[in-house]
Structures are given as structure tokens and as C-alpha cells.
Amino acid sequence: MVKKNKEENPQGIKNVEETLTKTEQFLEENYKPILISLVVIVAIVGIVWLGKLYLNKRNDEAQSQVYQAERYLEMDSLKLALNGDGNYLGFLDIASDYKFTQAGNLAKYSAGICYLHLGEYDKAIDFLSKYSKKDKVIGSLALGATGDAYVESGNTDKGLSLYLEAADFGGNSFNTPIFLMKAAEIYELNGKFPDALKIYERIQKEYPESSEGTSIDKYIARVKLLIK
């Protein structure tokens, strides 16, 4: 058996040598394209890395500015929250100057909330729609707030669809029942009591421990009477 393997070795070595020769020939013929490809890959990796460093630095700058704007929003000083106070930027400038940062993205949401409370619903819709909904919780709140703006503007059908979207987007026991309740209220206002009942029963079944779920029985009883 050993003798047989020894006899086969020369052919195996020959095959390996032929493969190596073909590889060397390929590298010689394609040296320049391969080198260019490697340089391009290294350049792209370097650009991405430098871009991340730059954006991280910009995000840190935006975070230092957005803190004061958030405080003004909590104090209901909405104009200052939007436009700044001369020392710190407001949400509008942060959203504009730091477009590709997390803080700049969040500033769009916050600006939309400010405009919603100020009753400037078109501007609220504009900024809330520009917010990139990467975070499930805030994304759900943004959709729901956009629904509020449409409802306040008189477009209850659009508001209803956004409430339902916000409920499914959030997928948690805090956001979802809130927006389901708002959707059910719109159904009731439009006289669609069976649709409202379905939503109330969903809250009862899926979110019984939520603040909405603990008082949902009275809504179910009322809408059943309205259906009769």
C-alpha cells in the first residue's frame, strides 16, 4: 500500500506544479487589475472608517447642543426649543446642521413635536415625516404624532391609518394600546362601531395589564350598546 502511494506521488506533484504555474501565469497577466482592485478596496474601507469617525465627532457636537433644546421642550418653551437662545442651537438648526447624525435625526422628531403643540400641523407633519424611524419606540411615537397632526387638520382617515401603523410599529405594551385607543375613537366618531369593538377587544386580549387595558371593559360595553 505504501509502495503504491509512492508510485502515485510524482503524478500528484506534477499536478500541483501545473496548478502553481497556471496561478502564477494568471497573476502575471492580471497584475494591474488585481492591484487596482486592492487599492480601491483599501480606499473604500479607509473612507468608511474616516466617515464614521467624522460622524461620531459631529454627533457629539450635536448632543452638546440638543441638551438645552430638550430642556426648553420639557419647560414648554417651544419657540426657544425650536430656534435656540443665542448660546445653544434649537432643534431646527441642529436638524439642518447635523443632518447625518443620530442627534440631528432626533432633532427632526423633536421639532415636529414642537410644531404639533404650537398648532402648526403642516410643519409638524413635514418634520415628523423626515425623521428616520430606526428606533421602534420613538418611531412609533413619531407615526402617532403625525396621526395627531392629520386629525387636528381634519383628515381623520389619514390619522386613523397612521394610528394603526404606529400601533403595529411599536409592538409594545406602552405605545401599542395608546394608538389602538386613538384608532378606536376615530372609528366611533365615524360611526364604525363594529371596527371600534374589534380594537377594544384586541386591547382586552393582548394588553390587559396596560393602563388602557385595565379600563377597557367599559368601552366594550358602551360600543356593544351602540351596535344594538
In the CATH hierarchy, the third-tier topology of the largest domain is known as: Serine Threonine Protein Phosphatase 5, Tetratricopeptide repeat
> Would you list the SSEs in sequence order as H and E?
HHHHHHHHHHH
How widely separated are the two ends? 93 Å
**Unreliable stretches covering 5 or more consecutive residues:** 1-7, 46-55
- Could you say which overall geometry the principal axes of the C-alpha atoms support? extended
Strand content: under 5%
Instruction: Give me the count of strands.
Output: 0
Structure annotation, total helices: 11
CATH-derived architecture of the largest domain: Alpha Horseshoe
Sheet with the most strands, sense and barrel status: none
Q: What number is the mean pLDDT? A: 83
Helicity level: over 70%
The domain count comes to: 2
CATH class bucket of the largest domain: Mainly Alpha
